[in-house]
Amino acid sequence: MLKLAIQKSGRLHDDSMRLLKECGIDISNGVNKLKAEATNFPLELYFLRDDDIPQYVEDNVADIGFVGENVVFEKAKKNTIVEKLGFGKCRLSIAVARNEEYTGTAFLQGKKIATSYPVLVKSFLDKNGVEAEIHEISGSVEIAPGIGLADAICDLVSSGSTLFMNGLKEVETILQSQAVLIRNNELQPEKMKLLERLLFRIQSVKKARN
Ligand code: PRT
Ligand code: ZN
Fold first, then answer.
1. Is residue 32 very low, low, confident or very high in pLDDT (cuts 50, 70, 90)?
2. Does the beta carbon of 155 lie inside 6 Å of ligand 1?
3. In this structure, what DSSP letter does residue 38 have?
4. pTM of the prediction?
5. Distances (CA, A) of 72 to 32, 65, 142, 143, 177
6. CB of 170 closer than 8 Å to CB of 94
7. Choosing a second label site near 101 at 20 to 30 A (CA), which of 8, 10, 177, 201?
C-alpha cells in the first residue's frame, strides 16, 4: 500500500482531496482522524501539518506527500519532487512599508527581516551579497513592521491584499511556489509501481483541466 501524506486542514487540504477524487480514488472515512484508506486503490492517507510532511516522507513514515514547494525548499529534507500539482499557487516575497523608497536589495543591508522562511531568506540575501538580521516568527508576519519588530518581511503572497491591508508593498519575489508531489528518495520497486499508476492518473487530470 502506498502511503500519502496530505495537509490535515488548511489551504491545501481541499484541493488535495479534490485531486484524489478526480483521479477516481474514493476515500473511505472522514478527516477527523489521522489516517484514511482508499476503497478502490492501494492508497493510505495520512493527515498532517504541512510543515511536517517533508520530514515524514524522508523518514519513510509516508512514501509520498502533497505539499507546497515553499515548505519543501525551506525544510530541505531528502525528498524528490516528482510533479507539480497546479494548485496552492503563491509566491514568497519580501515586502517593506509602502512609504519606503526601495531602490534594490542594498536597501535590506543591516535591516531586520521578519519571516517564517529563514532558510530561503538567508539564501536570497547571500546570493545578493546582503547582510541582514533575520527574525524568525511563526505567524502574523505582516504585522511585524507596523509594531516596530522589523523593517521588512518575507512571506507568502497570493492576491496581495494582506500586504495592502498592512500598509506594505512587495519589492522582491524570492520563490514562485505551488503544491507538488514529493516522494521518498529510495522507494521500493513495488511502491514505485504504485506511484507510477497514481502519477499517470494525476497527469491525466491535469491535462483534462487545461
Ligand atoms: O496547519 P498547517 O501548518 O498545516 O498549515 P499552515 O497554516 O502552515 O499553512 P496554510 O494552510 O496557511 O498554507 C499551506 C500552503 O498553502 C502554504 O505552505 C503554501 O504552499 C500555500 N499557499 C498558497 C499559501 C497562500 N497561497 C497564502 N496566501 N499559504 C499561505 N498564504 C497566506 C500568507 O502567509 C499570508 O498570510 O495568505 C496570506 C496572503 O494572502 P493574500 O491573498 O492576502 O496575498
Ligand atoms: Zn504549516
1. low
2. yes
3. B
4. 0.96
5. 25, 10, 22, 25, 10
6. yes
7. 177
User: For residue 94, what are the contacts with CB-CB under 8 A and spacing of at least 6?
Assistant: 108, 113, 121, 124, 152, 153, 154, 170, 171, 172, 173, 174
Confidence of residue 31 (pLDDT cuts 50, 70, 90): low
Name the CA dihedral angle for 61, 63, 67, 73, rounded to a multiple of 10 degrees: 90
Complex prediction ipTM? 0.98
The domains found in the chain, sorted by start residue, are: 2-88+178-209 (3.40.190.10), 90-177 (3.40.190.10)
Cell numbers that stand for 100 in this block: 519606503
**In which residue are the cell numbers 519606503 written?**
100
Smallest-distance ligand from the CA of 12: 1
Give the closest ligand to the alpha carbon of residue 141: 1
Q: Candidates 90, 138, 143, 154: which one to mutate for ligand 1, based on the most atoms within 8 Å of Cβ?
A: 90
pLDDT grade for 30, boundaries at 50, 70 and 90: low
